Amino acid sequence: MIYPVRQVPLRSRIPTVRVRLATDDGELTFRARWKDRPIDLQRRILFLMRQGQPIFLEDEWGHGVCLRPECVWGASVDGRPDGPRPAPRAPASGSRPPTGR
Q: Among candidates 27, 36, 33, 34, which has minimal Cα distance to 76?
């Protein structure tokens, strides 16, 4: 029997989290694939930093990211799908709401 090929790669089914790292070269922000709770990834990164072990992550495209622990100062992981949402803006004074036309 012939089975159809998957149209969607399996890695796209693993959710992504937004990772922000403070490094010697500045702030580094990217999305990483992680199955468990986001706080677990943050704790894992901090643990590896303290142990002096390299930090291996996979970004949303499947590329490997390796960071030296001595270059990373801190880590923050956000598990919301689109990251933090901006605050709603107040309408400009004198403007009218859009009509349905």
A: 27
